[in-house]
């Protein structure tokens, strides 16, 4: 894996220079931006395949930049933060981020996260039994990766789409979070909270908000089940 375009955004000049130089030395095409507004301009012009994004910046936060990026692209966004803060991590993932790395650690870890996110972005989705899934509520075109929920188009990130594809391809059977983590994120990831956070976003996007008749059911100790409208009897929503 080499030559991919990576946009690095950090308002600390020394960190920004070091990241850009190290990524260039690792075979990537890296471009730096020192604030959120410059990052968005560079995003339009550079068209990166991944963004490494500082979480805390003046004028325009990393969260705001990520939301702007998500409105026009599904490229992976890896957040950088100066501290390990669970609330910040949740906010970053909910804004559309794909990963979260604490500054000051080994660059080897950041590089591994970048490579893993790039692999996921270009990897094929789970092989479906048919080209299309339709159950009266969800309509998924596996050829075009388009998703309709209750007749309305749903814009999913690649991770959300892969999660949903895994569930409908195992309809009626619980899929353990460890399996979802490996199939969607890859073997380098062990944090099951990633599945939980992205599953929460997926549920909201497809309109799965009715506690009495959930589409995606959590079976504690077993995993997540896609509860098709025709198969809801007997499953307990969580």
How would you describe the overall organization of this protein?
With 238 residues, the chain is of the alpha/beta class. The protein has two domains: 118 residues, Rossmann fold (3-Layer(aba) Sandwich), CATH 3.40.50; 100 residues, Arc Repressor Mutant, subunit A. Helix content is 38%, strand content 19%. The strands form three sheets. Strands 2-1-3-4-5 form a five-stranded parallel β-sheet, sandwiched between helices. The protein has a four-stranded antiparallel β-sheet with strand order 6-7-8-9, with helices on one face. A two-stranded antiparallel sheet has the order 10-11. α2 packs parallel to α3, α6 crosses α7 and α6 crosses α8. The longest helix is centred in the middle third of the chain and has 16 residues.
In short:
The chain has 238 residues and is an alpha/beta fold.
Secondary-structure map with pairings?
Blueprint: E1 5-9, H1 13-25, E2 29-33, H2 36-46, E3 50-54, H3 62-70, E4 77-81, H4 86-94, E5 99-102, H5 107-122, E6 132-134, E7 138-141, E8 146-149, E9 152-154, H6 158-168, H7 177-185, H8 193-205, E10 216-219, E11 223-226
Parallel strand pairs: 1-2, 1-3, 3-4, 4-5
Antiparallel strand pairs: 6-7, 7-8, 8-9, 10-11
Q: Which keywords apply here?
A:
238 residues, 8 helices, elongated, Arc Repressor Mutant, subunit A, alpha/beta
- CATH class of the largest domain, anyone? Alpha Beta
| CATH H level, superfamily name of the largest domain | Response regulator
Strand content: 15-25%
The description of the largest β-sheet is: 5 strands, parallel
Total number of beta strands: 11
Distance between the termini: 40 Å
Q: Supply the number of helical segments.
A: 8
Q: From the 3D structure, determine the CATH topology of the largest domain.
A: Rossmann fold
Task: Using the CA coordinates, give the radius of gyration.
Answer: 19 Å
Strand order of the largest sheet: 2-1-3-4-5
Percent helix:
25-40%
């Amino acid at each position: 894996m080499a030559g991919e375009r990576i946009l690095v955004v950090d308002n600390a000049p020394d960190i920004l220079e070091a990241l850009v130089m190290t990524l260039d030395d690792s075979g990537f095409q890296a471009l730096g931006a020192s604030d959120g507004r410059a990052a968005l301009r560079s995003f339009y012009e550079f068209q990166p395949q991944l963004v490494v994004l500082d979480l805390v910046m003046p004028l325009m936060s990393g969260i705001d930049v990520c939301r702007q990026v998500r409105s026009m692209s599904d490229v992976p966004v890896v957040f950088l933060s100066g501290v390990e803060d669970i609330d910040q991590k949740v906010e970053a993932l909910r804004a559309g981020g794909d990963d979260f790395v604490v500054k000051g650690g080994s660059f080897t870890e950041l590089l591994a996260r970048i490579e893993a996110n790039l692999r996921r972005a270009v990897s094929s989705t789970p092989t479906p039994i048919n080209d299309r899934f339709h159950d009266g509520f969800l309509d998924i075109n596996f050829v075009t990766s388009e998703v309709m929920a209750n007749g309305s188009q749903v814009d999913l990130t690649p991770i959300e789409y892969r999660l949903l594809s895994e569930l409908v391809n195992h309809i009626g059977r619980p899929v353990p979070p460890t399996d979802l983590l490996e199939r969607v994120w890859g073997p380098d990831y062990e944090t099951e909270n990633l599945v939980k956070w992205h599953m929460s976003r997926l549920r909201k996007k497809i309109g799965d908000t009715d506690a009495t008749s959930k589409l995606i059911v959590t079976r504690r100790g077993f995993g997540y089940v896609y509860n098709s409208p025709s198969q809801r009897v007997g499953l307990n929503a969580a």
